[in-house]
Amino acid sequence: MTTFLGMPATAPRGVGNLRGDQTFPEAAHDALGNDQMRRNLRHATTTIRGKSGKVIGELPDWQRLRDAGSAIKADVMARLPFLLEQLEQNVTAAGGIVHWAADANEANAIVTRLVKETGSDRVIKVKSMATQEIGLNEALEEAGIAPVETDLAELIVQLGHDKPSHILVPAIHRNRSEIREIFLREMPGVDPALTDDPPVLAAAARRYLRETFLSTTVAVSGANFAIADTGTLAVVESEGNGRMCLTLPDTLITVMGIEKVLPTWQDLEVFLQLLPRASTGERMNPYTTMWTGVTPGDGPQNFHLILLDNGRSAVLADEAGRSALHCIRCSACLNVCPVYERTGGHAYGSVYPGPIGAILSPQLTGIEDNASLPYASSLCGACFDACPVKIDIPSILVHLRNEVPHPRGERAAMKAAARIMDRPRLYASAQRAAKLARIAGRRGRGLPPPLTGWTASRDLPEMPSQTFRDWWAAR
């Protein structure tokens, strides 16, 4: 075993989908030029916000549920080693096999080996952020194993040779006309007369997947929750494809981030109320599938659980940032974020976009590899208000901004500013001198380099004609 909880290591480079090729400002600049994507996002997020707000408003104890969810998650983080060992013991007692993966490389190697041992060259997959995070599909394909996504949105992304752009709705950046074109181009046996009517598109996907469900002997899933005191795993979904994957194959391999564990069934009750309302605006999930180990003659006869770290211990080690691990992947923060709505998920460069991605990805990879993400926010606080487990995302963003390596010139400027502000007379003189900035023009375009680099993405406030000190002295 190479995993030791509490000895932090960040997610390795060169594998998985946590790092982008561009900084957020560069990628966002490109994304803002895609008018169609922005229209798709605006329509989708507005619709989800409306549905979610309506069903949340039906619960008089919503804020108490949020408090309970936050408290449970804090307790889990405080007792994580014990709970994981308890989960392993109970999964094993129920006939499952538990594997520990320190990072993406180990997890991919374990899954690949387990699939090869079955003799299968194809797997069906339940929608899973963890497997996207580690780049499992790419690892399987490199080993000659074909992964087939069965979630409709994930299937659209896979057939379109695309990347997900939303935690819950990976193809949110596509409209139905674009989906039709993808199906016509990539889906075997599709009707050439296919229309872009949503039920018709869903029926085409159903026909394509049905044979795969019935003929594939290995499935790979993630897990929304795991119950430590029983060894039970749970997946919640909207389409039923997950239940097909979790019940039909002979072998089931589940890749789960170590933060997904819960102590008891009673704790699960809280999250089964929070998650559907915050995510899809439903009172309950259409499909909630739970299984405990192996039951002879019923469901998969071989069950493997892979407990994935991949930087999570590093997040746990940061007292100010560890509550990012409370996330239940509901995407509520994305649906209210003005930045995400305009740039989309691809601009974040990580499988985790939006406000939660801006705090989770830098901690999983190390702040240096995602230094621009903590700045992908206006700090408006809408994400905190929407989060069903009350993650204080704005405070963590500020914390991570302090951890970002700043350029030498910026450090020198801040040091000089601190020196001036610490000396009242010098500060008063600087205020009087600052009036000259009134000639700098709109947005500071009149400032000389390198100050123009600072004002390129910030409005330079117009200096008042009179300082507060002068105003006070005159009265």
Keywords summarizing the entry:
about 50% helix, 2 domains, 4Fe-4S, metal ion binding, Rossmann fold, metal-binding, about 475 residues, alpha/beta
Overview of this protein structure:
This protein is α/β, with parallel strands linked by helices and 475 residues long. It folds into two domains: 24-312, NagB/RpiA/CoA transferase-like (Rossmann fold); 412-473, no CATH class. 48% of the residues lie in helices and 10% in strands. The chain has 22 helices and ten strands. It has a six-stranded parallel sheet with strand order 1-10-7-4-2-3, with helices on both faces. A four-stranded mixed sheet has the order 8-5-6-9. The longest helix has 22 residues, at 35-56. The protein is globular, with a radius of gyration of 25 Å. 43% of the residues are buried. It comes from Actinoplanes lutulentus.
Short account of what is shown:
This protein has 475 residues and is of the alpha/beta class. It is 48% helix and 10% strand.
How many structural domains does the protein architecture include? 2
**CATH homologous superfamily assignment of the largest domain:** NagB/RpiA/CoA transferase-like
CATH architecture of the largest domain: 3-Layer(aba) Sandwich
Helix content: 40-55%
| Uncertain segments | none
- Largest pleated sheet: 6 strands, parallel
CATH class category of the largest domain: Alpha Beta
- Structural class call reads alpha/beta
Estimate the mean pLDDT confidence.
91
| Global outline | globular
In what order do the strands lie side by side in the largest sheet? 1-10-7-4-2-3
Number of helices in the DSSP assignment: 22
Strand content: 5-15%
| DSSP E strands, number | 10
N- and C-termini, Cα separation: 73 Å
Radius of gyration: 25 Å
